[in-house]
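Incident log, support desk, overnight shift.

02:14 A customer reports that sequence design results differ from what the structure should imply. Their input is reproduced verbatim below. On-call engineer (initials T.W.) acknowledged and began investigating.
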């Protein structure tokens, strides 16, 4: 069984920074792209950032572009999210995801095959 294990998150003041990590364990699996989604209470899940595993392309939601940076390790078994200049509206549970095609890079979760357990990010004003 494949697991995506997240670490990081926490509480931070507006303008501060946090980093998230997501590491895969278990058997090898198909993953064409990985990324991050978030969901705030009472809100729909939304795309945050994605990275291709066969190229060097990264994609960001307009709301985080210029503030967040997504990256992966050379073994392609982990994905990271560096979050700078955090705003209260960034408060949400953040989920890493592995997907079977590049639709994730355009913000779709329909081809996600594995999800992380979620990490709470809270930004106070």
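02:41 Re-run completed on a clean worker. Output:
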């Amino acid at each position: 069984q494949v697991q995506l294990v997240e670490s990081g998150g926490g509480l931070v003041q507006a303008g501060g920074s946090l980093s998230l990590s997501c590491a895969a364990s278990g058997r090898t699996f198909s993953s064409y792209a990985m990324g991050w989604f978030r969901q705030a209470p009472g809100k729909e899940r939304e795309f945050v950032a994605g990275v291709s595993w066969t190229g060097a392309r990264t994609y960001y939601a307009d709301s985080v572009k210029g503030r967040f940076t997504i990256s992966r390790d050379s073994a392609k078994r982990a994905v990271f999210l560096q979050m700078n200049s955090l705003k209260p509206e960034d408060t949400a549970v953040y989920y890493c995801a592995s997907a079977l095609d590049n639709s994730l890079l355009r913000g779709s979760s329909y081809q996600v095959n594995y999800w992380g357990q979620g990490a709470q990010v809270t930004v106070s004003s």
